[in-house]
Amino acid sequence: MARHGRRNDGRDWSPGPGQARSGPRHRRPRDPGVDWIWGWRPVLAALANPARRPARRLVATAERMRRLGAEQPGAPACEVLDGAEIGRLLPPGAVHQGVAMLPGELEAAALEDLATPARGVLLMLDQVTDPQNVGAVLRSAAAFGARGLIVQDRHAPPFSGALAKAAAGAVDAIPHCREVNLARALDRLADLGWRGVGLAEEAAAPLADVLDDRPTVLVLGSEGEGLRRLVSEHCDALARIATQPGFASLNVSAAAAVALYEATRAAR
Q1: What is residue 221's DSSP assignment?
Q2: Which tens digit of pLDDT belongs to each residue from 125-158?
């Protein structure tokens, strides 16, 4: 399993004088299916969220359309398609449950708005790029009552597609913030009264011993790499999740669920 806190300095390599890159880089075109939200709970949550702009397109089977009308009065006009037609609009293997939507934009919150007043628990993900993991983290954040999620702007997946399906509606329940520099964001949060606690497998102290009732930002690193050095240095404390010998590594979404449980319990 991936490590939830190994550090590295996160520096990018660039060629020096007289050195050539190994070959041209080709950016893969973005799959248009990633812009969709599918599945009953994610679509219903997006339709009910007043912070979203109007949906660009809503498709459903006849049965789901009738249920949408009953559970979400005022929903936008819906195109009736059969299940196979809906599936062709989406990435292969998408379990759409008879409904999908091209959602309106969901704007990210400003960091100061998300963090004021300083109370409870925030989550910060340092370059976690897997949509399923980020979606699972959001679902845990909603389950344990986290205030919001902070992600690194250039290294976070779009909050739609597989991420929204894994989040099961939490994309529209938990506000999120995108920051270019997470180290500086931690400094700004400290000025607002927050304490940053980074999860690092090599940390000496167990997480339960580090947490208290102060407003806490739980900081988790990417799969495989963990927290980058500069981000970990701007945390107020590092802690590890106490696990059995030989099973020290946790998937980042599992680590987030355990850490949220511990942090919300300490806050209470």
Answers
A1: E
A2: 999 999 999 999 999 999 999 999 999 988 889 9
Tell me the helix, strand and coil percentages in the chain, rounded to 5.
Answer: 35, 20, 45
In whole angstroms, what is the distance from residue 178 CA to residue 7 CA? 22
Please tell me the distance from the alpha carbon of residue 181 to that of residue 17, in angstroms, as a whole number. 28
**What backbone phi and psi angles, to 5 degrees, belong to 141?**
-60, -40
The whole model's pTM is what? 0.82
State the pairing for strand pair 148-152/99-102: unpaired
Give the other-Cβ count within 10 Å of 34's Cβ.
16
**Whole-Å CA distances, 221 to 8, 49, 156:** 10, 29, 12
Distance, CA of 72 to CA of 119 (rounded, Å):
32
CA 58 to chain centroid, in Å, comes to 24
Q: Which residues contact 134 (CB under 8 A, 6 or more apart)?
A: 125, 128, 151, 156, 157, 163, 166, 167
Residue 29, token pair as written in the block: 């075109």
- Give the tens place of pLDDT for each residue, 85-113: 999 999 999 999 999 999 988 889 999 99
Which segments of 109-179 are extended strands (E)? 121-126, 148-152, 176-179
Q: Which residues pair with 121 in a beta bridge?
A: 216
Q: Is the pLDDT of residue 65 over 80?
A: yes
